Structures are given as C-alpha cells and as structure tokens.
Amino acid sequence: MAAMLELQHVCFAAEDGQEKGARKEILHDVSLTVNDRFVALTGPNGGGKSTLAKVIAGIYRPTSGKILFNGEDITDLSVTDRAKKGISFAFQQPVRFKGITVRDLLSIAAGKKLTVSEACRYLAEVGLCAREYVEREVNASLSGGELKRVEIATILARGTELSVFDEPEAGIDLWSFNSLIGVFEELHRKINGSILIISHQERILNIADKIVVLADGRVSRVGGREILPELLSGARPSPCAVLTGEGRNG
Amino acid sequence: MDAIERGLLEKVADLHGVPEGAYNLRENGKSVARASSANIEIVSKTEEGKSGIDIFIKPGTKNESVHIPVILSQSGLHELVYNDFHIGEGADVLIIAGCGIHNCGVQDSEHSGVHTFYVGKNAKVRYVEKHYADGDGSGERIMNPTSEVYIEEGGSMEMETTQIKGVDSTRRVTRAKLAKGASLVVREKIYTHGKQTAATEFSVDLDGEGAAADVVSRSVAAENSHQEFTAVINGNAKCTGHSECDAIIMDNGTVTALPALTANCVDAELIHEAAIGKIAGEQLTKLMTLGLTEQQAEEQIIQGFLK
Ligand SMILES: Nc1ncnc2c1ncn2[C@@H]1O[C@H](COP(=O)(O)OP(=O)(O)OP(=O)(O)O)[C@@H](O)[C@H]1O
Ligand SMILES: [Mg+2]
Question: Going by fewer Cβ within 10 Å, which terminus of chain A is more open, N or C?
C-alpha cells in the first residue's frame, strides 16, 4: 500500500519581508491527495511548489487547513515528528555543513552508523564514485550537482513511506538524468511508498501517475499523464506588464 | 598512576600506556617518566628556579614522534613550565603535547607552559596539543600556554590545538617569526561553556621572502562563556598571510574577533576573515527532516564543526 498524504484546504501566509507584522498569503486553499507511486508537482516559478513541500515537511505551519498522513492528523506535528512518521524531504537548495562528512549525513539519515561500504551503496545509486566522496565534508567544496546527489542519497538512506523531492534534476547533468528516473523507480520498488517530485522536466512528468499544477498558490490542474501534451502546449502565463511596456503611455 | 590520571592521559594524548619513541610525562609538577631515543634527547632544565625540559631533535630525523603530556590532579597546584624544542635541519617530526587538569578541590589549579620552538632549516614539525579539564570542585581549572616559534629558511610548522572541555580560563599566546620560504599553519579549536573565558592571541612576523602563514580558529561559545580572538599578522617581505575566525555562538555566549594586518612591503598579501553567528536555522531544519530533534541536530553540527 502506498502512503497516503492528504492536504485539506491548506492556506499558508509568510511574514512579509518588507512590512513588519504584515503577512502575505502564498498558498490559497490547496487540497491534494498523494497516494500514487509518483506524483509530479509542477507549475510556474514562484507558484508555491517549494512552499507546499515545506508545509508537508512541517517546516512551515499552515495558517489554516489540515494535513493527514495515513489517516492521522499531523498538522501540529514538528518537523522531527513528521520525519519519524515517515516523511522525507530533499531540499531544492541543499544545506552545507562544515565538518559533517557525507558518511555522517547518510548515517544520520539512515538512523544508524553506516559502514563505508553501506554508505557507498547509496552514493553509487546516485552515480557518485563512492570512495571519493564518503569521507568528504558536505561543505562548500562540493559542486552544486554533487551536493544535489548527496541530498538525494540521504533520502534513499531514509527509505520512508513518503519522499518529497524538490527539483531533484536541477544541476544534474544530462548523462545522469536517465539514471535519476531509475533511482526513483528503485526507491519505489524497495519501499513501495509514494514519491512526490517537484519538477519542470517533461521526462519526469512523463513517469508520473498524477500531475498537479500549482500556479499562484492554487492547484490549477490535476490529472494523469494524458494532460501532459496540453500542459506543454498550453497558454503560457502572460509576461510581466512592466517588461513588455504594456500599461505605459505610448 | 590512578584511574583519574589514566583518564586524563587518554583524553589529552590518546595514550593508553607508555608511548612509543621519546617522551616525557609530567604529573603534578614533576617529571615522572621519560625516555630519549637515538635521535631525540630530552633533558631537564638545570637553571635555578626554572622548571622544564629541553628537547633536542637531531638534524635529518625522520618519522619520529615526541610525546610530552602534562597532567594535574592535585587541587591548588600552580606551575610554570618551560619547554624548548630544538629541531635540527631537515628533520620531520610529530610532537604531541597536551594538558589535563582534574580539580575536585576548592583551590584553583593552573598550568602555564612556555613552549619555544626553534625549527631548523627545511625542518618539518607537526605539533598536536589538546587541553582538557574536569573534576567537580569549585576551584578553577586554568591553562595559559605560550608558544614562541622561530622558523628558519624553508622550515614549516603545523599546529593543531584543541581545547575540548572544562577549562575555566585560558589565555593562549602564540608568537611566530618566519624566515625566507618558511610556513606556519595553525588550526585551533575551542569550545567554551558555563562561565568560561578563552582569549587567544596570535602574532606572526613574516620576515622572509615567500614566508606564509595560515591561522584558522574555529570556536563555539556556549552558555555564558566568552571568547576573544586576536590575530596580528605583519607582512615584512613578499609573503602571504591569512587569518580566519569562524565562531558559533549559543545561548548567551559572546565572541570578539580582533584582526590586525600590517603590510610593510608592497608585495605582502594579507587576508583576514571573521564570521560569528548562531547555527544557521536551515542546518537545524535539514537535520530535523532526517529525524533528529533540535537538540540532537545542534550537537551534530557542533561536533562536526569542531572535528
Ligand atoms: N519566507 C517567505 N517570505 C515571503 N515570501 C516568500 C517566502 N517563501 C516564498 N515566498 C514567495 O512565495 C512564492 C512561492 O515561492 P516558492 O519558492 O514556493 O515557489 P516555487 O513554485 O517553488 O518556485 P520555483 O519553481 O522557482 O522553485 C514566491 O513568490 C516567493 O517569493
Ligand atoms: Mg521551488
């Protein structure tokens, strides 16, 4: 049985950086069910995808609405508690740590001290030549793509019922792209859980059982793979009026 | 030696027994065990009123080590020790120092060590030092190490110093003079907690052409502790100098970083970096998404940072 995540009428407002005390609503009444193998979340930049992922992981608390995981209300659970319940989240921009090695991080993710060969197995899955990386620090010396792969490897090491990946393909070279899809398939095969992938890539949308489009903080479209051609050819959002000069005199 | 002393020795020198090669073990103000080797000779200072040892390392000595741990387990002991290292031309050695204080009494215990290093031409020295203290007495545990470093042409010294825990007050002074092509690398790690204070002062003169110094301090000031980092680098020739203070503050901990760079030569290249702040929120969040509690996440981050 796949995991079951249910968002019911979730709204989220963030502190407005410019005006003190003011809040800006980013997610408006989002309802969504994830109980398939692969669910792809897509939509324009700034549409609220990463924000929604953080709401699922517990990093942001919804201002209203409910989140259920396998039937249990987890709306008020902390990040740690949700992680323990079986939710994993790969950041769009992975975090760097001075002094924490790749093996340390994978060990934390796995919940036990990993041997070099155990850690290597996860790294090999994401296409990193393992021996070169296990003892390296997860610091600024790793390239963007390497860091991104380490991030994915931590999610594999966790192996939870629900895994959320925020643009996992970003910064990963073309050559590795196919293997990345293999990684998701393998993860599903092992855990038999659900995977929510935020992506702009047609090839990732193509493996999805369900595609959800989030635009302006609202779910604007939900459907199977059959909606893909329409999405790809579909009307693009109109460019910013300032850039096109619309609305100005002359 | 009792269990407490054995524990201290393990903490500061990773020693479980008698070390290999040359060593001098100082316990409660006296030298209690010593061995010289074919290439490394250790002798007591003979000057009146001056306690300490001279360590002579023969030119060309390779892959040898010297252990000079100090432990204090008597409350109320104050000592001032002079250790001079004479490192011969072309030698390549490892020096392991360390000081452990166990104070369960009401009087302060204090160890002040003055180490002078004469690093010969093209000699290479790696110096590793750990400071640790414990004991639940109200007496303070105080360590004030001073290092004077003279590096001759082409010589190099790498200093790895760590103050792990329990030292109530410390003032660490390191002064170095580097000749042509000499290099100095310092990696310092300090963790303070409670009401502890730690002051660390570096003063490096880059006198010779091609001299290079790289001084990096990583520190964590937790609870109500305070740390002060001063790094003075004087570039007196075509040289490169870099100092860096990277500090994490927690609770009510405070840190001051005082860099001072002076270029007395147009070809001197000197850089200072300092970053002080609390643990980045996103680092905590990341580890929490991996299932750690906030406190466990904090511990992992600090442990890695000071590793
Ligand atoms: N903490 C915050 N405070 C204020 N505004 C925020 C905050 N986080 C996100 N936003 C805003 O909310 C909107 C949604 O951001 P989000 O990062 O969720 O978009 P996204 O769909 O992931 O975009 P992308 O495809 O570019 O990654 C953006 O307009 C962003 O500027
Ligand atoms: Mg995003």
Answer: C
- Residue-wise pLDDT tens digits, B215-242: 999 999 999 999 999 999 999 999 999 9
Q: Which of A51, A59, A60 to mutate to test the pocket of ligand 1 (most atoms within 8 A of CB)?
A: A51
Dist CA A159 CA B79 (whole Å): 57
Question: Which tens digit of pLDDT belongs to each residue from B45-60?
Answer: 988 888 999 999 999 9
ipTM of the complex: 0.90
Ligand 1: list residues with CB < 6 Å.
Answer: A 14, 17, 24, 26, 45-51, 92
Could you tell me if residue A215 is inside a domain? yes
CATH at A229: 3.40.50.300
Closest in A89, A98, A99 to B289, CB measured:
A89
The mean pLDDT of chain B is 93
Range of the domain at A168: 5-242
Show the CA angle centred on residue B299, arms to residues A142 and A152, nearest 5°.
35
Q: B52 CB contacts (<8 Å, ≥6 apart)?
A: B44, B45, B81, B82, B83, B84, B114
Number of domains in chain A: 1
Q: Who contacts A17 (Cβ-Cβ below 8 Å, separation ≥6)?
A: none
- Which residues of chain B neighbour A91 with C-beta distances below 8 Å? 286
Under an 8 Å CB criterion, which residues of B touch A? Answer: 218, 246, 280, 282-283, 285-294, 300-301, 303-307
Dihedral angle, C-alpha A92, A98, A99, A105, nearest 10 °: -10
Distance A18 CA to ligand 1 centre (A): 15
Cβ atoms B76, B107 nearer than 8 A: yes
pTM of the model: 0.86
